[in-house]
Specification:
With 372 residues, the protein is α/β, with parallel strands linked by helices. Helix content is 41%, strand content 17%. It has helices at residues 52-57, 67-72, 76-81, 85-89, 101-105, 133-143, 161-181, 199-210, 228-238, 256-265, 274-280, 312-316, 319-327, 331-358, 361-371; strands at residues 9-15, 22-28, 31-35, 37-40, 63-66, 95-98, 111-113, 118-121, 128-131, 147-149, 188-190, 192-193, 217-219, 248-250, 269-272, 283-284, 291-292.
């Protein structure tokens, strides 16, 4: 009988001497992912404002799709009939799907949590739905992603200790059901560490999820409205406790500073909608901090968005031009800014990986942090 080990393997290539940062290679059925890595989010089987050819041009190695949205629209049966997400959206590199748990639990007035699963209403049309750990596994199996996530309960911020503990314990009971229902060795099922912002709960959760022989492990329940200092404290505590020989995935985190800190704490994989969301609101990343394209300072600025960036936008257009498009309400502005922001984060991770291999991670990232 085949296991995930026939299709997935993680190797650490280099480690930082002074931090928990590491560079690795994660083999999947659709290619090797060089870590640390940033994963652009294609919620509805598309990265907003971009074609797949444009996403490929950013050098993205893997994208994330959301199974909750795919389940509601276009529907798992249709996507399965199309050959799965890779054929459906014409993306033939690795794909990760999240379970939809976070999206469902964010519908606080439209869902009811039970031990069996979650009953919820579609916020667009009011249709009633139910997803259990077993159904989540079937949905993600039909979608056909390389990496799938366990169905979990994400406690809100803030929450009291008892509520966090109840959510964590239910997550662990559901995790057992996810593993019992999951039988596709070509898909790697990642457990998720919950426990809100209580250190003893996080340690307990790490012990539980690490008892499962998984291809990788995730840290969830952060970046949900908490102060940066609290987020960093929890990630710094949790990441090094997870198995060293497996990839560690920090869910929903994606500012340049957060990526640097996450790698420093020992995280290998990141995703976030921020790159494209910021772009649609006119904000772009630079090595001197975030900038806002509509600002008057860029009206006569005929330089690229960032002088160190070699993305399509920076090689072909100026701040003045992109500003004009944005202020004129042209959708192309969001496309050009999205290309830049995704490429910026992808390239940032490539350079961080290089610094780990060359033994200069601490010095390189400190310089970046000073500039950011």
């Amino acid at each position: 009988m085949q296991s995930y080990k026939d299709y997935f393997d993680f190797k650490i290539i280099a480690k930082s001497n002074s931090t928990n940062a590491r560079a690795g290679e994660f083999k999947t059925p659709h290619g090797i992912i060089k870590t640390p890595v940033f994963m652009p989010v294609g919620t509805n089987s598309t990265v907003k404002m971009l074609t797949m050819a444009q996403v490929i041009e950013t050098n993205a190695q893997i994208i994330l799709n959301n199974s909750y949205h795919m389940y509601l629209r276009a529907g798992c049966e249709l996507i399965k009939k199309a050959g799965g997400l890779h054929s459906w959206q014409n993306w033939h590199k690795p794909i990760l799907t999240d379970s939809g748990g976070f999206q469902i639990f964010s519908l606080s007035k439209l869902r009811k949590i039970t031990e069996e699963g979650v009953h919820f209403s579609d916020p667009k049309n009011g249709a009633k739905h139910f997803i259990s750990p077993e159904i989540s596994m079937q949905i993600q199996n039909d979608l056909g992603a390389d990496i799938i996530m366990a169905f979990d309960e994400c406690a809100p911020y803030p929450c009291d200790y008892d509520s966090a503990k109840l959510a964590m314990e239910r997550t662990h009971r559901w995790l057992k059901r996810c593993f019992n229902a999951h039988n596709n060795s070509r898909q790697a099922l990642f457990p998720i560490v919950q426990g809100a912002f209580f250190e003893d709960l996080r340690k307990e959760a790490v012990n539980i999820v690490s008892s499962y022989d998984a291809a990788g492990y995730a840290i969830g329940g952060v970046s949900v409205g908490e102060p940066v200092e609290i987020k960093n404290k929890i990630v710094e505590l949790t990441a090094p406790l997870l198995p060293e020989n497996k990839p560690r995935y920090l869910m929903g985190v994606g500012t340049p500073v957060d990526l640097i800190n996450g790698v420093r704490f020992g995280v290998d994989m990141f995703d976030c909608v921020l790159a494209t969301r910021n772009a649609r609101h006119g904000t772009f990343f630079t090595y001197n901090g975030n900038k806002i394209i509509k600002n008057k300072e860029f009206e006569h600025d005929f330089t690229p968005l960032d002088l160190k960036c070699d993305c399509y936008t920076c090689k072909n257009h100026t701040k003045a031009y992109v500003r004009h498009l944005y202020r004129s309400g042209e959708a192309t502005a969001a496309t050009l800014l999205s290309i830049h922001n995704i490429h910026f984060l992808v390239n940032l991770m490539e350079n961080i990986r290089k610094s780990i291999i060359e033994g200069t991670f601490k010095e390189y990232t400190q310089e970046l942090l000073n500039n950011f």
